[in-house]
Design brief:
Helix content: 10-25%
Radius of gyration: 49 Å
Number of strands: 17
Shape: elongated
Strand content: 25-35%
Strand order of the largest sheet: 1-2-3-4-5
Largest sheet: 5 strands, antiparallel
Structural class: alpha+beta
Oligomer: single chain
Amino acid sequence: MADHGALLMMGKLHLTTKHYASLLYSWNVGKSWNKLRISSTNSTLYDIFTDPNSIIQTFLVQVLEIDYILKTLKKTSLYTLNFGNFHARQCVGETNPGAADSDFELWTPYGGKGRDCLLGRRIAYTRRKQDSECYNGRDVEFPVTIENCECTEADYECDFGFYRKELDSSSPCIGYKEINYTAPEDCPPGTYYEVSLGYRKITGDTCQGGVSHEPRRIPCPASRTTMSGSGLMILLLLGGIVVVILTVGYIYRNFDEVKRRLKVGGAKKGGNEFRDVRYGRIEAKIDEADDEDIIIQPSSVSKDKKGRQEIELT
């Protein structure tokens, strides 16, 4: 393809039977084709090259000359085909396509079923008129217009879990089971959830208005009696974090008091509440005749240099 698509070329490549390399070309956008023979010896086309942007009128053709008896390659040839002098004048009127004095026209891809919309939009390309005997040139710019179309049944396909009985866009989408309108578990009050009606717009379709098969939008219930498993786990986790933060804060603010209570508690547990009391030697007389009542009384109570009590019993 060359000259912005106005010049087309094609040929059969890699033939393994006796053949003379030849090409077909069209200068009127495929309206008619002409044959061009490249070689008069047994050969085949290997490849056709042109400018990647397709703006020039030159092709580079690679031809392989083959000995079909020995099944060997004899040589490779490159041919340059320049259509620059094919038409004498350059096309005019690209800014007003369709006018009588313009060599250009508007062309729209056909969407089928009598529609000129494709994927919900109408795209009009500017191209050279097929009967205009001129060339586009390198620097010509073709305007493109795009506008959205109204939506029709052809802009929708069946959503997951739905099907058509007939392979036609006019056939309704039927669900494999009844549509469930129950609100999902994660549906906070004041928000909405959507329920598919069996249709979805085709990916990339940009139609607007017209037929609508958008999902039904339903408000979430005002209150929920149940909580999802994930919500409960998050709530418990947040509660645990709050408890840890409050505990650490209390300990930090009341460190001395907490330390004192821990010491007192440890002392009671170990039975050392009288560790600072020193005891003297017990001296008592026991009446063997009456050993039922033994009375031991402290004879004196004093304190040592460290303030600890000393008790002497007699």
